[in-house]
Specification:
single chain; alpha+beta; Aminopeptidase; 2 domains; 14-stranded mixed β-sheet; 11 helices
């Protein structure tokens, strides 16, 4: 087992990733973005060598993030990119890599967390991780016909869908008349207004990623993995930002990868969700999806606008350094942007 250096060991890590971590034509771009272009301190990288042959057969990384908790800014790590070459793909090498990352992270990080799939949960548990929360996917349907076809004949789905969509638009129109006057704009890049919004918004004692413009420019604007557009909300006649949503349109669904508002951790106003839904419909989306950690009270705006749960994934982690001295685990606010890609 060896410690890796992001630049020096780039080719070694990529040789382990090749054919093991998704789309092989994009892994180099992903590595450079995540581990060389990041505005955060250097990631924790562990490399596993097969001694008899001298070959590198496994790698594991923890990308660092800045997270706020009250008045403190802490260093967290997101567990990512665990890969073992097929000839050595047994529980032993995966456990060795996980345990090495955990030992290193306890010295460098205040929190290490990850999003294991079903097959990896046992490895996470045996490595000392505890279940922290769930990342829950919620969906709101904008065009009902394609979803109704799953339950009724096609000839009936179209008229029923049209009726349902008309009723929803009427409800949204009435709410718009009674709600705040908001201007919704699309933009391709983060701007300095997002810094001002972050600074003035309430964050309480919840632990969450620092959502400033520097983070957004790296996480979304420079990402080689997907194209992101921001929907920004401002009062009419003002440039002051009340909210932003980082979105990606895929196969007819507008995915909200991250968002932040002037209400901060106190919750998302339903009027802001209304503005998002109007913009999504105008952009041609058939549905809107968001993934957020489950936290009482914070999800009320989504729930009021009939976002329904469509799946959940566990988040595992453990405390290190500063947090290890405290009782209990801070409540986490996570979105799909808190994953490694």
């Amino acid at each position: 087992m060896s410690n890796g250096e992001p630049l020096q060991d780039r080719d070694t890590v990529l040789s382990v990733w090749w054919g093991n971590l998704g789309q092989t034509d994009r892994i180099a771009a992903k590595y450079d973005w995540c581990y060389l272009d990041s505005p955060f301190p250097a990631p924790v990288i562990k490399l596993l060598r097969h001694v008899p042959s001298g070959d590198w057969v496994g790698s594991c990384c923890a990308g660092k993030r800045r997270m706020a908790c009250g008045d403190r800014v802490l260093t967290a790590g997101v567990m990512a990119d665990l890969a073992v070459v097929p000839a050595h793909r047994t529980l032993g090498p995966a456990m060795m890599l996980q345990q090495a990352i955990v030992a290193e992270a306890k010295e460098q990080l205040d929190l290490l967390y990850g999003f294991p799939n079903t097959n990896a949960v046992a490895v996470f548990k045996r490595s000392g991780y505890a279940r922290l929360t769930d990342l829950v996917r919620y969906v709101h349907v904008l065009r009902s016909a394609q979803y109704l076809r799953r339950h009724v004949p096609g000839w009936l789905a179209a008229p029923l869908g049209a009726m349902a969509d008309t009723a929803l638009r009427l409800q949204e129109g009435l709410r718009r008349l009674r709600g705040p006057s908001l201007r919704a704009d699309w933009c391709a890049q983060a701007d300095d207004r997002m810094d001002a919004l972050w600074q003035r918004s309430p964050r309480g004692k919840v632990m969450l990623t620092v959502r400033n413009a520097e983070y957004l420019r790296w996480r979304f604007d420079r990402s080689p993995m997907a194209t992101t557009r921001y929907l920004t909300l401002s009062p009419r006649g003002s440039e002051e930002l009340h909210a932003w949503f980082a979105t990606q349109l895929e196969d007819g669904t507008l995915h909200v990868r991250d968002y932040w508002t002037d209400h901060g951790v106190d919750g998302l106003p339903a009027a802001y969700v209304d503005a998002l839904l109007r913009a999504a419909r105008q952009a041609g989306a058939a549905a809107v999806s968001v993934q957020v950690s489950e936290r009482e009270g914070h999800l009320s705006g989504w729930g009021e606008r009939e976002f329904r749960e469509r799946g959940r994934r566990p988040v595992y982690g453990f405390k290190g350094k500063a947090l290890d001295k405290e009782d209990g685990m801070p409540v986490l606010h996570l979105s799909s942007a808190d994953e490694d890609e």
